[in-house]
Amino acid sequence: MGEHMSVQDAQPAATSGPDTGDVLVVEGLRRRFGDLVAVDGVDFRIGHGETYGLLGPNGAGKTTTISMVAGLIPADEGTVTVAGQLMGPRRVDPKRHIGLVPQDLAIYPELTARENLTFFGKLQGITGADLKGRVAEVLELIGLTDRAKEASKNFSGGMKRRLNIGIGLLHQPSLLILDEPTVGVDPQSRNSILESVEALSGEGMAVLYTTHYMEEAERLCDRIGIIDSGTIQAEGTREELIRLTGGVDQIRLSGSGDVAAAAEALRGMPKVEQVDADRHTLRLTVREAPTAVADIVTGASAAGMSLSDVEISRPNLESVFLHLTGKALRD
Ligand SMILES: Nc1ncnc2c1ncn2[C@@H]1O[C@H](COP(=O)(O)OP(=O)(O)OP(=O)(O)O)[C@@H](O)[C@H]1O
C-alpha cells in the first residue's frame, strides 16, 4: 500500500470532481502490479438508491477496482469521485461517505455482536447515545438483534458476514461497497444478506456489489458491468445486456399426436418467431416466453398435439458473459 503517489494525491489543488449528482463516478481507472495490468481503464457511475454490480470471474479485477474506489490503494491513472469529492489514499473526507465490506471478515471473535459494533463505532468517532442508538439500528438492519449478546465466534459463516456488513454501515455511508459478500455462506444466510442489501437500496443507499454469481447480479443490481481482464466488457440493465448479445427466449414442447399441425398453427402466432419441428418435439424461438407460453400451449393442444413436457429457457447473464468473452463465468 502507498508505494507510489496516486494521480489524485499528486494534485492537491483539485479536491472536487465533476458534480454530476451521482454518488460515485469512476473514470479511466488503471492499476498495474508489476507487469500485470489488473485494471485496464474502468469507467462507471452509481446514482442514489442504485445498486451497481461488477460481475466477473476470479481475477477479473473486481477487488482491485473497489480497493481504488475506497481509496485503499492508489490508481496509476484515472479518478474516483465520491459525493463530488476526489478519492485517494490520503483523502479523508470522501472516505466518510463510503462503507466498505471486505471479502475477509474483520470482526473480533471473542466479542459479542453488539460489542463488535460498539468497538468499530467508537473507532469511527461515534459516541454516547448516538452510538448506542446506531448500534441498535444496525443490529436490526442485519437481523442480529436477537443474537446481539452472543460472542461472534459462535455465529454461522453467514451471521459473521452480516456482522461484517453492519460494521460498514455504522457511520451511515451514502455508498456501500460489498466485495463478494456471499462467498462460502449457506443458502439461508445468503438470502438474508441479499434481503439486507435490497432493504438498504430501498432506503436510497447507493451500492457497489461485486460477485461472480450471475443470479445475485440479476436479482439485486439495477445495472451491471461485466468485467473481465481488467476491463468492463459491457454495461447495462439485465435486459439491455441480453438484448445487446442478441439473446432470444426458447420454448420446447414435447409430446405426441399431430405435431406437424401444431407446428403450423404456432407459426402464425404473434410472439412466435421461429418453429422447428421433429416427430415428438417443437422448438420455438419466441419473444417474452413467460407471457407467451400459455397461448402457445393452448394453440398446440387445439391443433391436436398432446403435450407431455413444456420447457422455457431464457438467456441469462451467464450466456451474455460467454458471448462477450468466450469463457464461462464459473470455473
Ligand atoms: N497485490 C497484488 N499483487 C500482485 N497481483 C495482484 C495483487 N492484487 C491483485 N493482483 C492480481 O490482479 C488481478 C486482478 O485481481 P482482483 O483480486 O482484482 O480480481 P477479482 O476480480 O477481485 O478476483 P477475486 O474474486 O479472485 O478476488 C489478478 O490477476 C490478481 O492475481
Topology:
Elements: E1 24-33, E2 36-46, E3 51-55, H1 62-69, E4 77-82, E5 85-86, E6 98-101, H2 113-123, H3 128-141, H4 157-169, E7 175-179, H5 187-202, E8 206-211, H6 214-220, E9 223-228, E10 231-236, H7 238-244, E11 249-257, H8 259-267, E12 272-277, E13 281-286, H9 289-302, E14 305-313, H10 317-325
Parallel strand pairs: 3-8, 3-9, 6-7, 7-8
Antiparallel strand pairs: 1-2, 1-4, 4-5, 9-10, 11-13, 11-14, 12-13
Helix pairs in contact: 2-3, 4-5, 8-9
Bound molecules: adenosine-5'-triphosphate.
Bound molecules: adenosine-5'-triphosphate
Please state the second-level CATH architecture of the largest domain: 3-Layer(aba) Sandwich
Could you state the CATH homologous superfamily of the largest domain?
P-loop containing nucleotide triphosphate hydrolases
Cα gyration radius (Å): 24 Å
Low-confidence stretches: 1-13
Judged by helices, strands and strand pairing, the structural class is alpha/beta
**Beginning-to-end CA distance, first to last residue:** 30 Å
What's the level 1 CATH class of the largest domain? Alpha Beta
% residues in beta strands: 25-35%
User: What is the chain-wise order of helices and strands?
Assistant: EEEHEEEHHHEHEHEEHEHEEHEH
CATH-assigned fold name of the largest domain: Rossmann fold
Most strands sheet: 6 strands, mixed
Mean pLDDT: 89
Going across the biggest sheet, name each strand in turn: 6-7-8-3-9-10
Helix content: 25-40%
Number of domains: 2
